[in-house]
Amino acid sequence: MARLGKVQLTIEKESDSKSVDATSYPVEKGVAMTDHVEKKPGELSLSGYIIGPNYQADKEYLQKEMDKGTMFTYVGRNVAKNVIITSIDGDVDANIANGTAISIKLQEIRIANTPWVKVQNSGKQKPVTTKPATTPVYHLVKKNDTYWDMWKKYGTSIPQLRAWNGYRDRYIPIGVRLRVK
């Protein structure tokens, strides 16, 4: 038994497929191949049966969700998350009294980690504000203090701390005042 969305399926065969598109153009020696290979989404083909008194309603439900592009999780011998149905084929047979044979193709949908967000523009220009000049903040160096510690404590980047203070990383004298903001 397998499940696709809310539909119970009797699956006889699952076939999965993974592939990439590779460039057909020459690649310079020493260039990483990852720049010339594009991963294609995984595909899963199912063949089996929808059996039960509501098999027609279940098939119609899957067809409607396919048209909408609804994402499912398929659980059978394989588990496939974030998949959509790309095709459904069915056969009604005299040997199947209360159901239909079915072939379904699923395609993996890769979800972006950082979704794009549209910024609304009101059309009005905002006045340019300059940052008020801040008074410098200093830190009195103690034994074992490093630029790393100052960065963690005050949030000022290490290159900026080096530029302001002029000391090499391992030779910050004890007792001097370091500018940290």
Automatic annotation (TrEMBL):
Residues 137-180 form the LysM domain. InterPro entries: Dit-like_N (IPR048494), LysM (IPR018392), LysM_dom_sf (IPR036779). It holds the Pfam family Dit_like. This is LysM domain-containing protein. The lineage of its organism: Bacteria, Bacillati, Bacillota, Bacilli, Bacillales.
